[in-house]
Design a protein that fits this description.
This protein is of the alpha/beta class. The protein is 44% helix and 19% strand. The protein binds glutathione.
């Protein structure tokens, strides 16, 4: 049985969401640290140009977007409360808002001169400049418009107030965590841990909840190289599909891309699609055949000529 391989970088909030879920699930996993900006040739070989981080891999199956990663962590650990599509409507609505609008507000509100100085200290002036240039161009191609500084901060504070009132029990939707807790955690982790904002001061329940979330840790992590991870893909075949595909483009060449930001398309043969996930078959000289998994929601699929 393989361990999940996670492609991530330290200061990425969505990577932190995945690391926290791995901790909650008590899993051992392998880590491939990738750069903060493309090019990322290892991910390109595996996932054909998918732009966002994190990505996960199990054998010759590749998982794009933390919703697919969460589903896989649930599969390995039995923690089905991490599968968004299986949660009640109110949890799904909360996660949708939190993973997109609130997350972007957290990033904008926390990205001030102090955070930039930290970035320069930890990388270099040149690397920080390239990072900013990359993210500005990503923002330009985005279909979601992020709030500006003061409005972004107001959105984060409104979110904190909402969470404070929700936290009558230890977690947002009850006595134990579900995917909503992990979606709410990573944006605030960026604001408080990385950018050092004291904004939890007036929200004691959220503060206590953050500590509970941090307490899950990251599971058992071991470092491997990108080359070792690619060997894992090459030495394995993708797992068999578990159900018949319901998608009308099944068997056809398609491009699949996020419909919000980081919309770089991935090309392959559509193998499977239902109301929860999409699987595309790809082949690369370095990896052989891989199956790349995406959530159904939030991704646009278009037919292309082969
Ligand atoms: N919906 C995606 C969002 C992922 C995301 O936005 N990741 C950020 C990093 S936290 C990203 O990819 N930024 C651009 C980059 O790292 O190249 C998910 O759930 O995985």
């Amino acid at each position: 049985m393989h361990e999940l391989i996670l492609y991530h970088y330290a200061m990425s909030p969505f990577s932190e969401k995945a690391r926290a879920m791995l901790g909650y699930a008590g899993l051992s996993w392998q880590s491939v640290t990738v750069k903060e900006i493309p090019p990322r040739p290892v991910i390109d070989a595996l996932a054909g140009g998918y732009r966002k981080i994190p990505v996960a891999q199990l054998g010759a199956d590749v998982f794009c977007d933390t919703r697919s990663v969460a589903r896989e962590i649930a599969r390995l650990s039995g923690k089905n409360e991490l599968i968004l599509e299986q949660q009640p409507r109110d949890v799904q609505d909360f996660v949708r808002e939190t993973d997109l609008k609130v997350f972007l507000a957290c990033v904008v509100a926390a990205s001030d001169g102090r955070l930039l100085k930290k970035l320069v200290r930890e990388t270099s002036l040149f690397a920080t400049f390239r990072f900013l240039k990359d993210r500005i161009s990503m923002g330009r191609n985005s279909r979601v418009k992020a709030l500006k500084g003061p409005q972004a901060k107001a959105r984060v504070l409104a979110h904190l107030a909402q969470m404070e009132s929700m936290l009558e029990q230890d977690f947002l939707f009850g006595t134990s965590p579900c995917i909503a807790d992990f979606s709410a955690y990573h944006g605030l982790w960026f604001v408080c841990e990385l950018a050092g904002k004291p904004w939890l001061r007036d929200y004691p329940r959220v503060r206590a909840w953050m500590e509970r979330m941090k307490g899950f840790g990251h599971g058992q992590r071991s470092e491997i190289t990108g080359d070792q991870a690619l060997d894992v893909a090459r030495n394995n075949t993708p797992r068999a599909l578990e159900a018949a595909s319901e998608h009308k483009l099944t068997g056809q060449s398609v491009e699949i891309a996020p419909d919000d930001y980081g919309r770089d398309p991935v090309r392959g043969i559509l193998l499977f699609g239902d109301d929860q996930s999409t699987i595309v078959r790809r082949e690369h000289a370095r990896t052989g055949v891989v199956h790349v998994h995406f959530p159904a929601e939030g991704f646009a699929i278009t037919p292309v000529s082969a």
